[in-house]
Predict the 3D structure of the following.
Amino acid sequence: MTIYALSSGIGVSGIAVIRISGPKTKKVISELITGPFPAPRVATLKKVNNINNNSLIDEGIIIWYPSPNSYTGEDMAEIQVHGSRAVIKALLETISSTKYCRLAEPGEFTKLALKNGKINLLKAESIGDLISSETEIQMQQALKVIAGNNLRRFETWREDLLKILSNVEAKIDFPDEDLPNEILKGIKKNTKKIINEIEKSLKDDKVGEIIREGFKIAIIGPPNGGKSSLLNYLSNRDVAIVSEIAGTTRDVIETHLNIDGYPVVISDTAGIREAKDEIEKKGIKLSLKKADEADLNIMILEPKNKQNRDFLKKYFNEKTILVVNKIDKKSDKITPDFKLYNPTLLSIRNKKNIESLIKKIKTQIKKRLNGSENILVTRARHRQNLEDCLLNLKNFVNQKQNDEFDKAAEDLRLACRSLGKITGKVDVEEILDSIFNDFCIGK
């Protein structure tokens, strides 16, 4: 089936790009235009007409990419027209009127490129990451993966394991023949080398995943301490409702920020206290969950709250910055207990000392994301597959020592398969839908 979609952004724009891919692409273009068919990969100005009544829709650029030299590996074309809603609507409707075309699903063009061997699975995922990147560090991470930096490392491990597997299988095929000592030593040395390299890659503090998804900050504290006010200040807009009534925030409110080029997801949470009703109870549960999942917690307390000591003991940990808000007057002094936690004293209402807090936040982000240049793992899926590979390799080492070659070979096959799932070297149909559902239609 031939597919089509708007590949540029939705809305009014100078130019809109409609992409078509499949065996009937040339037929569709031929019906849309008159005169000679465009030469391959040459931008050609053409009048674009309605297929059904030959009325003019627009004048635009046609680029024809015959198979296999196209993004998808199939016959493909791109139509560049003026980006008005009327032109886009008319062009999409006339293409859809043909019986041999259908609207593309999210990520389907890239999925075709993967299936036709034009790109690998890592590159396919990173194209999606590049499209959705909001900061330069996210963009650079995606570009490194697209360039093949990570692929080479995964492929080297897999090729080395396949060589080891071939020696083990040779022993299974010829049980009466002993493997030379040099080969046995090589198997042991190379396996341990791969194990060490994978373990080192996994000890990355999940930096790649944090860059891709955003550094998570949760603002926590008792009700009416200034959590929503701080979120609004950092966001530079009214994201959350601010009220003198305690317990105004019942749900988690999130906003995405760019702090010194780093992607940050900051959450305002419900005030933590003894819940007064079922809704507040659920909100507090969500607050504690967000605090547990966050990379950094900002705990906001008031200077004269009697419950501060118990709250600190219960919820303060190594990933927490303590903020004492409402230091509006000279008489608003903190108790000695607070000083043990290196608090930041501020007044959100008077915009006093907030820059000091922002500086602390930046320091924590940079500290956590330091050394992001050689990141190998950028997704939870990659991490899980590497952990599975590592487990099977350790099982292989243990079984090999007992001359259990059949079981050892199976452990090696499973280890190779785990690496293959990352790059797409094995059947990964079951994970494709989850990957490409995050893509926009037309890519």
